[in-house]
Amino acid sequence: MSSPAVTFAGKIPAIIVFGDSTVDAGNNNYIPTVARSNFEPYGRDFVGGKPTGRFCNGKIATDFMSEALGLKPIIPAYLDPSYNISDFATGVTFASAATGYDNATSDVLSVLPLWKQLEYYKEYQTKLKAYQGKDRATETIENSLYLISIGTNDFLENYFAFPGRSSQYSVSLYQDFLAGIAKDFVKKLHGLGARKISLGGLPPMGCMPLERATNIGTGGECVGRYNDIAVQFNSKLEKMVEKLSKELPGSNLVFSNPYEPFMRIIKNPSSFGFEVVGAACCASGMFEMGYGCQRNNPFTCTNADKYVFWDSFHPTQKTNHIMANALMNSTFPHFL
């Protein structure tokens, strides 16, 4: 357990999560979309070895954060009917795999747009007030930690995949458009009572196995342009957060940047105990995710802990654990 988390234990009543597949714990199982992972081999290293809809062989970063704060070992998905408000009172995720800031991104695979996640959060507040009583619920809402992890799909699944947005916006203007949506979302959250808010940046998305595999003629190098775009976008988000934190009364906003810690793993995998960084564990390790990661694929690796990536887009549980610790160390002290 990392030290900031220890200092924190008992001070944070809940972790509330918004975002995409990096933090979705299975909401997409309950909506009509192909962006799912509630089948084997997903979840094979999860408690009980069962697939939950997390795009991972085990836990995602937010699960580790919840555990480190002494809340509970996993953060459940809001749409999962096997949980109720007594579970959600200490942590819940509204995230939806394949979504983005841009509504056009969530439309691609018919997943929950960010505005819909906020609607579900309002519904959650109503349930929480009924469950805890108004005063205690208000206290929970104010002291909870709000984590937002989203944005990669806006570029890789939308902007660079379809002609729509790229014919309307240059990359730089699209970044500004997304940052504007992020700002608006944080303001709305604050208006609903949230105070401790962490806005996550983009990882080195050019180093995902899918991007390396399609980077023809480079021998599977990371796509430098995509990484540069992530760095630029992160810098815009960071400036926006800095400015906004001065405008919103009583707010404690932090920009949480996964880029550097993730890059450290990618540049020096062996120092973290990894053997494979360019290909994923699942199937051929180059293209497959979701339904492409079939249960009986003979190429799927036996020990995911040797791999940085689980499928062509998503990190393994081990990588998620390392990233959770890195982000807790850099971000959490700001909330103390």
TrEMBL record:
Xref: CDD domains: SGNH_plant_lipase_like
GO MF entries: hydrolase activity, acting on ester bonds
Record Pfam families: Lipase_GDSL (PF00657)
Keyword Signal included in the entry's annotation: yes
Keyword Transcription: no
Domain of life: Eukaryota
InterPro entries given in the database record: GDSL, GDSL_lipolytic_enzyme, SGNH_hydro_sf, SGNH_plant_lipase-like
Coiled-coil parts of chain: none
Keyword line: Signal
Family affiliation: Belongs to the 'GDSL' lipolytic enzyme family.
PANTHER family associated with the record: GDSL ESTERASE/LIPASE EXL3 (PTHR45642), GDSL-LIKE LIPASE_ACYLHYDROLASE (PTHR45642:SF32)
Protein name: GDSL esterase/lipase At2g04570-like
